[in-house]
Write a structure and sequence with these properties.
mainly beta; elongated
Length: 41
């Protein structure tokens, strides 16, 4: 679980996950103000 609330009120973020095998999963412009959970698959 990650809390990304930095107090700025920003809602849109880009996410990058780098897996142990070196593969990368990138999601851009995720509106975290509209979701309660974000899953990387």
């Amino acid at each position: 679980m990650i809390d990304i609330d930095d107090g700025s009120g920003a809602c849109r973020f880009d996410f990058l996950a780098v897996m142990t095998n070196g593969s990368r999963i990138e999601k851009r412009d995720v509106n975290v103000c509209e979701i309660s959970r974000f899953t990387v698959r």
